[in-house]
Each structure stands twice: as C-alpha cells, then as structure tokens.
What we know:
Layout: H1 17-75, H2 81-103
Amino acid sequence: MSRYKSYGYNGRRRGSKVFWIFLAIILFGAIYYPFYGKDLRFQIGTLVSEVFNTIGNLLIIIGTILVFIAFFQAVSNVPRSALKAIRNEFIAIIILFSGFFLTAI
C-alpha cells in the first residue's frame, strides 16, 4: 500500500518550510510585541502615513499640471479641443481630489 503524498511536504523529510516560517513569525511576534508593541505600531503607522503623504503630494502636482494643460486646451482656437479639455479637466479634478484625500488636506 503506497503512502499518501500530501501537498507542501517533501518525501524525504517530515516538515514543511511554510509551517516553520509561520511558526517563526508567530514566535517573533510573541516575544517582540509585549516589550516593543506600542513603538512598533507607531513606527508602522508613521511609515504608512509618510508613503500616503508622498503619493498624495505627487497626485496634487500631477493634477495641477493637468488643470493648466486643460485650461490651455480650452482657450486655444481649435474647436474639437474644447470637448477634450472638459474631459481632461474632470480627470485632473479627480486626481486632485484623490491627492487631497491621501494627504488629508
């Protein structure tokens, strides 16, 4: 009778790498968190906040540039560019609002 081969296990050894990695993460959290948990939470929050602020600032800059481009398209004398300018203006406003949302302005 052949032995059933389970997924995640190598035939030569009895353990899975995924299990040992998961166990190491749990043990690290169990040892580290009681002593430095509040500092870790503050550091992760600060890092995520900085990333969102940077993305938001980039979106505000891109949105402002697109607003000026759409304005110059609307002012130009090409008749078909007016509709394109209105569409680009809406896109620029959406990008600006998403940038303001990410930077919490």
